[in-house]
Amino acid sequence: MILIDPPAWPAWNRVWSHLVSDESYEELHAFAKAAGIPSRGFDRDHYDVPSDRYDDLIAAGAVPVSSRELVRRITAAGLRHRKRPPTE
Predict the structure, then answer these.
(1) 2 touches 26 (CB < 8 A)
(2) pLDDT exceeds 70 at position 68
(3) Number of domains in the chain
(4) Contact by Cβ (8 Å): 55, 73
(5) N or C: the chain end with fewer CB closer than 10 Å?
(6) Do the domain assignments include residue 37?
(7) Full domain range(s) for residue 6
(8) Sign (positive/negative) of CA torsion 60, 62, 65, 71?
(9) Model pTM?
(10) Which residues form the DUF4031 domain (predicted)?
């Protein structure tokens, strides 16, 4: 299932959502490609999408969930990739 959290993450003078799959990266990449999301938006386990795309992505089939639920679902699916801590 494709999931999207509410736009809440500020960066580059915009507010962003995260788009993920709780099934596979293949599903996520296929959905993103069909929705016209550039591959440069992919970051480890999600696509960053600007708030102006939120409603369009829901209309295309993404299921809105809270940020907490999104992380819970991709973690349970084994698809969560956290940033590595900096090495000294």
Answers:
(1) no
(2) yes
(3) 1
(4) no
(5) C
(6) yes
(7) 2-77
(8) negative
(9) 0.89
(10) 2-76
